[in-house]
Design brief:
The protein is α+β, with helices and mostly antiparallel strands. It is 33% helix and 15% strand.
């Protein structure tokens, strides 16, 4: 079946099978390689994308369900040639080590900050609880999200 949806601000059409999962369609058919498939079971969060404003693991999300919806991947955060303030905060806070989980964490953070612009540390931890990182210990990640929230509050884009 053919589905149409908005991907990173642009309309796309793609042929999918009934059992195709979104993460694989994004990577294999649409070549959006910022989506990482870590576990393929929805447990690690590396494949997190934003669907209509909600952070969603894409490796177990049926591709057919995005018909008519809006999907944002890490590639969609760049605007006017500039990385997103959350991405910059991750850089400034040294919140990435191997980097495999980083796109999913940044998208989880974006969905959180879009919904709650001034989260507490506990709310940040809850907001990224579906994303596993084996390298950082999360301290720098939480610091980065706090920094991004502060910068967004100050009007950074």
């Amino acid at each position: 079946m053919k589905i149409d949806f908005v991907l990173n601000g642009k309309p796309v059409s793609v042929e999918v099978a009934a059992d195709d999962m979104l993460g694989y369609v994004l990577r294999d058919k649409l070549e959006v390689t910022g989506v990482k498939i870590g576990c393929g079971e929805g447990e690690c969060g590396a494949c997190t994308v934003i669907i209509d404003g909600k952070a969603t693991v894409s490796c177990i999300y049926p591709a057919a369900k995005v018909a008519g919806r809006t999907v944002t991947t890490i590639e969609g955060l760049r605007s006017n040639g500039q990385i997103h303030v959350i991405q910059q905060a991750f850089i400034d806070s040294f919140a990435s080590q191997c980097g495999y989980c980083t796109p999913g964490l940044i998208l989880a953070a974006k969905a959180l900050l879009d919904e709650n612009p001034t989260p507490t540390r506990d709310e940040i931890m809850a907001g990224i609880s579906g994303n596993l990182c084996r390298c950082t210990g999360y301290y720098q990640i939480i610091d980065a999200i706090e920094l991004a929230a502060q910068r967004l509050k100050e009007g950074a884009r």
